[in-house]
Each structure stands twice: as structure tokens, then as C-alpha cells.
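Review this fold:
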Amino acid sequence: MGTTDTSRPNLDSILNERKKFDETKAGVKGLVDADLVDIIDDKDPSIHQGTVDRIKEACETWGFFQVVNHGIPLSVLEELKDGVKSSPALNWRDTFSCYLAPETPKPQDFPLICRNILLEYGKHMMNLGTLLFELMSQALGLNPNHLKDMDCAEGLIALCHYYPPCPQPELTLGTTKHSDNDFLTVLLQDHIGGLQVLHQDKWIDITPVPGALIVNVGDLLQLITNDRFKSVEHRVLANHVGPRISVACFFCSDYRSSSKLYGPMKELLSEDNPPKYRETTIADYIAYFAAKGLDGTSALTHYKI
């Protein structure tokens, strides 16, 4: 007959304790769960204010959050991922990029396999971006149109990423550590995952949520909010499984034709909160970001006062 090993903890007891801990919303799991934001258009002021408050907390502490009930049909998200999957990969990550606003390209300029869906997705994304900037303006205590009037949602660039399976993922990364050189990024990722964000010096896995979109603050939004909102550093791990598909949409002004200067917003400054950054054009910032490369350091440091 066998004997009972009384020195080994009871598995059911361990699982129950873990479940209780998760339900307290403490620790990393709770923090990630708390950043799932429902932004469906609801006219109830109390619900709306709760959404604004959650976005405010996420932008100030995490620099990212996930949104559900965003108004984009699930069929559109799935069709877009299928379109990006169509091309064979040459490296560990292939990328197809295009401008979707302010000037929408001619349909014939897109690959046939993703032509219609990209144009449709761009329209949905502009509507979502406008809503997000309204909520963020309110989270800063400003008029809902404030960030939109600064042309933060004028330009939109889509980067469609294809990450093939990697036989030795421990030797490489899908995308190295970086923050984004825009005001705001909205990311669609498939079920495979691999995205990590850096929070309090720890890499946190962002588990895919079906139908959800990931939103993260970019460098330029951190600059104009004078560090109120945080641009989050993130990376993508390589994976044995694949291919991994993601589509990142970058909101920025049309830097190709604009000489407008951007600096910390005067509405947020005070004697106790002086400007922390010098003014820059978007073109200058993007040029510096590109020249520096994804070397693991922030381009914002270059613009510190």
C-alpha cells in the first residue's frame, strides 16, 4: 500500500488560495484585468465619467489599456488579420505599412488581398481615435475636442506585421524594446500573443482578449502632457508558434506638410509644474527617432529641458 505524503501541500488548497488572491485584484493579474476598458457610447454621465477616470489612471500609471465594445465589428478584425497573413515571410518579422489619413491612398495602391479591408478598417480606426482623444482630453481636465484640435488624430499610419514561427525564439526578439513615436497607438493582435509592456521594471505579458484592441500612449502624447500620460516601452517576443499577426495604427499629425511646433500644453503648466520638454516639430522628432533606432533608449531624453 502507498502512503500519504503529508509534507506536500494540498493542490486544491493552493488553487483556492490563488483564486482568492486573484479576486482581490492585487498583483499583476489584477492590474492587467483593471485595464480592460469598455468604451461603448453610453449617454449615462456616471458611466461616462467612470470610463474617463479609468483611462486617466491607465494613461498615468501604465501607458496602455485594452478596449472592448469599441464599435468595430469582429468580422472586420478577423478579415484584416487574414489579409495580413497572406504574404510569405522573408525575415522574423515582415511589415507592410501605409498611410490611411489624412489622404486616403487609391484602392489600386494596396495589395489586392487586403485592399478593401484596410480601407474599411481605416474608417473605423479614425472614428475610434477621435473618441479616444475626446476621452483623454477629458481625463486631462480639458475640453473634449482639445487634443483633436491640436491635430493629434489628423494622420493615421497602419503597420501590418507578420511574425513567422521561430525555431530558436530564445536567441532573438520579434521586436526589440521601444516606445512609439506618435501620440497614440491602437493595436490589433491575434491569439498567439507575445506582446510585453515594461511596468515598474518588470516585463508584463499582455494576454490577447478576443475582440479587444490595445491602446498605448506614444512619446508625443507624453511630451505635450508634460509627463502626465506615460509613453509605455514594449517589445514582442519571438515564438515557436506562428505566424503571429498584428496591425498597429499610429495616430499623429501629418508631419510631411506641417511645420507646427509641439510642446507641453500651457493649460497643464503651473509654477509647480514647469515645462519639462522643449518644443519640436513632428518631422524633427520622427527624424531623430529614426536616426537613433530601436536601441532601447527613449528619444524623449533628447528633448528634455
